[in-house]
């Protein structure tokens, strides 16, 4: 736990969320000589992007882009980072903001931990690895993942049997079993909400039976299976470790459906499914890969060409809606599809051995429940001004990235830069007013 930050610290801006949006905003503000506090509730900064395999449309390695930004933020003299810290709320009065933080105990003193991992190697309690979407195992005390920042061990209190082994092997005496949660309030003039997204439940549509088969997976799980240092080092299906020979992508499985309360398009699913299908065909050249879709939304620069490339590579695109998925023998799955492509035979049953559901993007945090910031009807932060798309309903509070709605990395980074610029302008204007008065 980092205990250096106290309520006396008064940064120019607080950035909520250490994903790619928060990192970019923090760096842009800090480069203008503004003091930034970056708050992240997970044990490492990096957000969703650090766990992706490669990114469309360039197929660059995701962590090769994210890690330098994480490192730049960690080393920037104007940025202070608090991980394992949740923003619980923001109180605003006369354009001054008080950010309420909850620092969760890590049971490791971050000043003393040198990231040597001796505690991790000595611990013999294993838990499912959250970074690998639960597929691999990790010790009860561990550095969260190889390129995590900070490189500090964190102890999982629920799994730990307090056997004392980690404390015995730690060369710097960093283990503190008696750490307690710590609450503090930070006052600031500007805030950037970059709290990102979550995916809705894999079980949101009971007719897809995800709760009855471990071979119906989330696209984030497939990202880890495709990652060079993923849980198995290659793509294997979860139920039995078999190399999948026939993989299906079911699009709009958690979006564009009033009945599940997500009527909007999640905007990134078509493109990441195309990306994942291309990566799969490279990893499993003999596999048969099918994308079931309603329509393909390839709206960005170079995206249509990316789609055409996937078709040319032999990925099957089937226009239609998957009505039901039934687990059958040997872990395989039967998909009941209504397609518009075969007028004589619109209702088809197709068999696959691994299915990826395109879950919908939903807000990662709802500031409107604990701050004065309003939400739009889709639950994401409202941005009422067309001419200032990163301004919220509260002066001095700005929003960036998927906290404002589904979007991909290119748009997230552009928006994060814009939010930093607006926040900086706001701060300079406020200071000029004080000087004049
Ligand atoms: C399967 C999949 C594949 C994708 N592939 C691509 C791709 O190839 N190319 C592409 O352009 N886009 C892709 N995307 C989209 C991309 O992941 C997002 O555009 C990007 O990660 C959004 O970044 P963000 O910073 O807005 O959100 P996030 O990455 O969600 O970061 C938000 C951070 O805020 C933290 N946070 C939230 N609430 C709080 C709080 N109260 N206190 C403290 N911290 C908080 C969270 O822990 C998180 O770390 C993909 C998405 C998915 C689901």
Any overview of this molecule?
- The protein has a seven-stranded mixed sheet with strand order 15-21-16-17-18-19-20. Strands 5-2-1-13-23 form a five-stranded parallel sheet, with helices on one face. Strands 6-7-12 form a three-stranded antiparallel sheet, with no helix packed on it.
- The protein has two domains: 13-104 and 181-196 and 364-436, FAD/NAD(P)-binding domain; 200-361, FAD/NAD(P)-binding domain (3-Layer(bba) Sandwich), CATH 3.50.50.
- Strand 16, helix 6 and strand 17 form a beta-alpha-beta unit.
- 22% of the residues lie in helices and 24% in strands.
- The model has no long low-confidence stretch (mean pLDDT 96).
- By secondary structure, the chain is α/β, with parallel strands linked by helices.
- It has helices at 20-30, 62-75, 118-122, 165-169, 219-226, 269-283, 303-312, 409-436, and strands at residues 13-16, 36-39, 54-55, 60-61, 79-82, 85-93, 96-103, 126-128, 137-139, 141-142, 154-155, 182-188, 190-193, 197-199, 216-217, 246-250, 288-293, 316-327, 333-339, 347-352, 354-357, 361-363, 397-399.
- The chain contains eight helices and 23 strands.
- The structure holds flavin-adenine dinucleotide.
- Flavin-adenine dinucleotide (FAD) binds at residues 16-22, 39-42, 47-49, 52, 55-56, 86-87, 194-197, 199, 219-220, 223, 268, 272, 275, 364-365, 401-402, 407-410, 412.
């Amino acid at each position: 736990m980092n205990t250096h930050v106290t309520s006396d610290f008064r940064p120019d801006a607080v950035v909520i969320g250490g994903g790619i949006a928060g990192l970019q905003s923090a760096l842009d503000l800090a480069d203008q000589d503004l003091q930034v506090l970056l708050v992240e509730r997970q044990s490492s900064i990096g957000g969703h992007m650090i766990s992706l395999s490669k990114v469309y449309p360039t197929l660059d390695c995701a962590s090769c882009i994210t890690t330098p930004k994480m490192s730049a933020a960690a080393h920037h003299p104007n940025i202070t980072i608090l991980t394992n810290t949740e923003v619980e709320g923001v109180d605003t009065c006369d354009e001054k903001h008080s950010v309420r933080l909850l620092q969760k105990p890590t049971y490791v003193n971050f000043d003393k931990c040198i990231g040597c991992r001796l505690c991790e190697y000595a611990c013999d309690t294993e838990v499912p690895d959250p970074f690998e979407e639960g597929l691999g195992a990790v010790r009860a005390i561990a550095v969260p993942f190889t390129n995590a920042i900070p490189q500090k061990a964190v102890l999982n209190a629920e799994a730990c049997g307090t056997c004392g082994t980690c404390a015995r092997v730690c060369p710097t005496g960093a283990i503190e079993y008696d750490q307690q949660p710590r609450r503090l309030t930070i006052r600031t003039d500007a805030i950037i909400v970059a709290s990102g997204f979550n995916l809705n439940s894999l079980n949101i549509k009971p007719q897809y039976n995800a709760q009855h088969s471990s071979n119906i997976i989330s696209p984030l799980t497939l990202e880890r299976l495709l990652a060079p240092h993923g849980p198995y080092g290659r793509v294997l299906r979860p139920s039995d470790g078999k190399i999948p020979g026939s993989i299906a992508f079911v699009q709009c499985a958690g979006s564009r459906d009033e009945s599940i309360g997500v009527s909007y398009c999640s905007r990134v699913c078509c493109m990441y499914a195309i990306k994942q299908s291309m990566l799969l065909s490279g990893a499993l050249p003999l596999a048969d890969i099918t994308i079931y879709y309603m329509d393909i939304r390839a709206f960005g620069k170079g995206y249509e060409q990316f789609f055409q490339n996937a078709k040319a590579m032999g990925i099957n695109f089937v226009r239609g809606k998957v009505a039901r998925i039934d687990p059958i023998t040997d872990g395989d799955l039967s998909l009941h599809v209504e397609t518009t492509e075969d007028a004589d035979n619109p209702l088809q049953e197709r068999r696959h051995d691994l299915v990826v559901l395109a879950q919908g993007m939903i807000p990662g945090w709802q500031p409107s429940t604990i701050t004065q910031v309003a939400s739009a009807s889709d639950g994401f932060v409202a941005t009422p001004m067309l001419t200032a798309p990163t301004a919220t309903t509260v002066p001095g509070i700005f929003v960036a990235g998927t906290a404002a709605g589904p979007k991909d990395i290119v748009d997230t980074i552009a928006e994060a830069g814009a939010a930093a610029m607006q926040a900086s302008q706001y701060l300079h204007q406020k200071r000029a007013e004080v000087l004049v008065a």
